[in-house]
Amino acid sequence: MYIQRAYKHLAILEEEGRLLPRLSLLANNAYSGKEYNGETTDGQIIITRHMIDKLVVRSFPPCMKQMHKHLRVNHHLKYGARRQYGLFLKGIGLSLDEAMAMMRDEFTKKIPSDKFDKEYGYNIRYMYGKEGRRVPQTAMSCAGIILRNPPSAVDCHGCPFRHCETGLLKQKLASELKKDQVEKITQFAENNQYDKACTRYFEFTHHLEEGGLGQLITHPNQFFEESQKIIAERIAAKKATQGGAEVEKMDTQ
RNA sequence: GGCGGC
DNA sequence: GCCGCCAACATA
Ligand code: SF4
After folding, report:
1. Which intervals hold domain DNA primase large subunit C-terminal (predicted)?
2. What's the number of CA atoms in the CB half-sphere (13 Å) around residue A69?
C-alpha cells in the first residue's frame, strides 16, 4: 500500500510536469511540422493547449496566472495581454497551431469564429514568424513588462508585483500562500524589489527555503523553466525511492 | 496597442 | 469598413 500511495503521488506530480510522454517514445520525427528557431531547448516535450490548465497551477508566474485566468473567465484578452501572454506561451513551447486553437476555443465563445481569424489571426501568426518579416518574436522579460506598455485600469497584463495595489496583491497571494509569506512578498513589492518579490513567490510556492532558488527571477519563462526543472527532479527522486518508507514522508507539493 | 495602405 | 506590419532579449 505504500507503493500504491507512492504511485498516486507520482501520477499527480507527473501531471504537473510536462515530461509526461517518455522522451524515448518521441523520436525526432515527432517534431516534424514544428519549427524551432533556437529559443526552444531541444529535448523538451511538445506542449498542447490541454496541458496549460495544469501547468498554470505550479509553473506559471503571477503575471501569467493572472492573464490565463482572465482568458478563461472572460473568453477574451485585450491587446497587451494577448501579446505578453501569447509570447510567453510560445516561449514555453506551445506551437502556433496549439496557440491559435487555444485562443480560438476561448474567444469563439463570445464572437463568431470568422471574426476571430479576421481580427486576431494575423497577429498570432506574426508572433511565430509566419507573417511580415517572418521573424519569430521572443517573450518579454520582467524588465520589459514592468517598464514599457503599462496596463490601464481595464487591462490584465503587466506585473502584479508592480501594477497591483498592495491590497489587491495581498488578496491574490492569500489564496496560495500563508499570511507571513504574503507579508514578506508584498514587503518587497512595496519596496519596488519586484524581482525579489517574484523570487520569494517562486520559493514559497515550490516549498523551497528563502533564497533556495539560488537566483533571481528576471524573466517569466525563466520562472517556468526553473519550476519544471524542480518538478522533474522531484519526479525522479520519487521514482528512485518509490516503495521505500521515505516516500511516505516526502512532501511533493 | 501603435503605425501604415485603400 | 477592409487590410498589413511591428515590438524582444533570460538562457546553459
Ligand atoms: S516579476 Fe516577472 S515574472 Fe514575476 S510576475 Fe512580475 S513579471 Fe511576471
Report:
1. 54-224
2. 12
Output the DSSP codes for A28-74: GGGGTT----SSSPTTPPPB-HHHHHHHHHHHS-HHHHHHHHHHHHH
* Cα dihedral sign, A53-A58-A63-A64: negative
Full-model pTM: 0.86
The set of strand B positions with any atom below 7 Å of a protein CB reads: 1
What ipTM did this prediction achieve? 0.97
C-alpha atoms less than 13 angstroms from C-alpha of A76 in its C-beta half-sphere: 12
Atom index in ligand 1 nearest the CA of residue A62 equals 5
d(C-alpha A102, C-alpha A177), whole Å:
29
How many angstroms separate the CA atoms of A181 and A199, rounded? 12
Q: How far apart are CA A34 and CA A66, in angstroms?
A: 28
The residue ranges of every structural domain in chain A are: 36-158
| CA atom of A172 to C1′ atom of B3, Å | 37
The model's pLDDT over A207-248, given as tens digits with 9 standing for 90+, comes to 999 999 999 999 999 999 999 999 999 999 988 987 655 544
